[in-house]
Design brief:
The chain has 349 residues and is of the alpha+beta class. It is built from five helices and 13 strands.
């Protein structure tokens, strides 16, 4: 005679049946195309670094910031000794000013006093020439009457001709004074002035290059030199870590590549600030594949090909640091119109 199952056995059997049924349903739905609602990537915080150097050869006079200090765009960071270049600028300024006066004088033409003098010289030469001509005419009459020697007449004729020559020269001088300087002389003076001004601008730029300014907002990462050191354009003085842009350098496998696109919104989280999520977006997807870097942890083998992705992230409180491990969460249920551009201002999420 068979023994009837107890109530406990019946309940256990029903629970087992329900569990098997639920598992089967989940597997069935998953195989029927059920997809995850988000994509998770792992990477590291990355930023740009700038090696700052003077565009000059001189000794450092002052260093104004140290490692770890935050600087703003246009902030003065260091200066070189300036005396030598200041003297060069002063000399170039004097040469340009002198040539500028020459050009002004040529363009202004003859002064009224010069014109008046030329007129007076011409009038005087005219009177002398007329008197010499009258003297010669009288002497010619007298020689015909045998009252004077022929030599006297010849002397009077020569004096009259010389007076006429001086009158002609005075008239030509008057024309030159009235006409003013030649156009060619003015053009040559202007060309010289242009060269002097170019030399002055170059000297002023050299003097300006003795100051080193921050090209962007950032943090001084290293202070390489000190006051008294000799620098050149090939000698870095500081290393500046830029605070913008900041991104997560991550890698995605080829099967997942079709799920993302440029501009998709994302969120970034780190172990340093648990529970805090930073607003982010996909700003770069590499067009070429590469082997998985050793620092990237994936479930695939190390030799699998992946694509680099840069997920730009808002960092309003400057909490994210270079090399910090980060997790990127990308919601996949975004329509094609939604997204964010890299130029959109960041706001703390």
């Amino acid at each position: 005679m068979s023994r009837r199952p107890s109530k406990i056995q019946i309940i256990v059997g029903l629970l087992a049946l329900l569990g098997i049924t639920g598992l089967a349903a989940w597997l069935f739905l998953d195989r029927q195309g059920g997809e995850a609602s988000e994509l998770v990537l792992h990477g590291n915080i990355d930023i740009r670094e700038v090696a700052l150097a003077f565009d000059s050869n001189e000794h450092i006079a002052t260093m104004l910031v140290r490692e770890g200090e935050r600087v703003k765009t246009g902030q003065l960071l260091a200066s070189l000794h300036k005396q030598r270049l200041q003297e060069i600028v002063a000399r170039a300024e004097a040469q340009a000013d002198a040539q500028r006066q020459i050009v002004s004088r040529l363009e202004a033409g003859s002064r009224p006093e010069e014109i008046s003098k030329a007129h007076a010289d011409t009038e005087a030469a005219t009177v002398i020439a007329q008197d010499a001509q009258r003297t010669y005419e009288r002497q010619r009459v007298l020689v015909g009457q045998k009252l004077i020697a022929q030599q006297t007449v010849d002397d009077a004729k020569a004096a009259a001709e010389a007076a006429q020559a001086r009158l002609k020269a005075a008239r030509e001088t008057l024309k030159l004074v009235l006409a003013g300087p030649r156009k060619e002389d003015i053009a040559a003076a202007k060309a010289t002035l242009k060269a002097n001004e170019a030399e002055l601008a170059f000297a002023q730029q050299q003097l300006a290059d003795t100051d080193l300014y921050a090209p962007a907002d950032g943090v001084i990462q290293t202070r390489i030199l000190e006051p008294g050191d000799m620098v050149s354009p090939q000698t870095p003085v500081y290393t500046l870590a830029l605070t913008d842009p900041v991104w997560v350098r991550a890698y995605i496998a080829e099967p997942e590549l079709g799920k993302i696109r440029l501009g998709m919104r994302a969120q970034v989280s780190t172990d340093s600030y648990p529970g805090k999520r930073y607003r982010a977006w996909i700003g770069f997807i590499s067009p070429t594949a590469e082997f998985t870097p050793k620092s990237v942890e994936t479930t695939d083998v190390r030799t699998s090909l992946v694509y680099q992705v840069r997920v730009f992230v808002c960092n309003p409180q400057n909490q994210l640091r270079l090399g910090m491990p980060a997790t990127v969460t990308i919601p996949l249920n975004q329509d094609s119109e939604s997204g964010i551009g890299e130029q959109e201002p960041c706001k703390e999420s």
